[in-house]
C-alpha cells in the first residue's frame, strides 16, 4: 500500500509559477514510479507528467513549462509549473504504481496507477 499526500496548490495569475509536492509513504518510494494527472469540471482526468527511476515524460500541453522531479531522500515528487495558463486550472492528482519503470506509453493511462492522492486545486486567473 502506498499513501500519497499532495500540497502546494493555490491561486496564481496567468504567467506565474507554482510547485506541487507529493509525499509518498516511506519504505515504498524507491520501488515506485509516479505521475501527475489533472481534472477540470466536466472533463476526464488527463495525464500531465510522469517519472520513473530513470526517465521523465510530459503531455504535449505542458512540455517546456512543467518539470517533474523526485527527491529520493525525502520520498517526494515535485511538479514545477511555470508560465501557467488559464487552461491549466484543475485539480491536480499525484499517482503511483509499483515498479521502477513504465512499459511503453503506459505512464499516460490513469488505470496504470493503483494509488492516488486526494488532489490539490490549482486555479490560474487572468
What does this structure look like?
- The chain is an all-beta fold.
- Helices cover 0% and strands 48% of the residues.
- A hairpin with a 4-residue loop joins β7 (66-71) and β8.
- The protein is globular, with a radius of gyration of 13 Å.
- The model has no long low-confidence stretch (mean pLDDT 93).
Fold blueprint:
Elements: E1 4-7, E2 10-13, E3 18-24, E4 32-39, E5 46-51, E6 56-58, E7 66-71, E8 76-81, E9 90-98, E10 115-116, E11 120-125
Parallel strand pairs: 2-11
Antiparallel strand pairs: 1-3, 3-8, 4-5, 4-9, 5-6, 7-8, 9-10, 9-11
What labels describe this entry?
126 residues; mainly beta; 7-stranded mixed sheet; 4-stranded antiparallel sheet; 11 strands; 48% strand; globular
Concise description?
The chain is mainly beta.
Residue share in helix: under 10%
By secondary-structure content and strand pairing, the structural class works out as mainly beta
Number of helices: 0
Beta fraction of the residues? over 45%
State the order of secondary-structure elements, H for helix, E for strand: EEEEEEEEEEE
Number of strands: 11
Q: How much is the average pLDDT?
A: 93
User: What is the alpha-carbon Rg in Å?
Assistant: 13 Å
Provide the low-confidence segments as ranges: none
User: Which descriptor suits the 3D outline?
Assistant: globular
Biggest sheet descriptor: 7 strands, mixed
Amino acid at each position: 500500500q502506498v499513501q500519497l499526500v499532495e500540497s502546494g496548490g493555490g491561486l496564481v495569475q496567468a504567467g506565474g509559477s507554482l510547485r506541487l509536492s507529493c509525499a509518498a509513504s516511506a519504505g515504498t518510494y524507491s520501488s515506485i514510479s509516479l505521475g501527475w494527472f489533472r481534472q477540470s469540471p466536466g472533463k476526464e482526468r488527463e495525464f500531465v507528467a510522469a517519472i520513473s527511476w530513470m526517465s521523465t515524460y510530459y503531455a504535449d500541453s505542458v512540455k517546456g513549462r512543467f518539470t517533474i522531479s523526485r527527491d529520493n531522500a525525502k520520498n517526494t515528487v515535485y511538479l514545477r509549473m511555470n508560465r501557467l495558463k488559464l487552461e491549466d486550472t484543475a485539480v491536480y492528482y499525484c499517482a503511483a504504481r509499483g515498479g521502477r519503470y513504465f512499459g511503453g506509453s503506459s505512464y499516460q493511462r490513469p488505470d496504470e496507477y493503483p494509488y492516488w492522492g486526494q488532489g490539490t486545486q490549482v486555479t490560474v486567473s487572468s
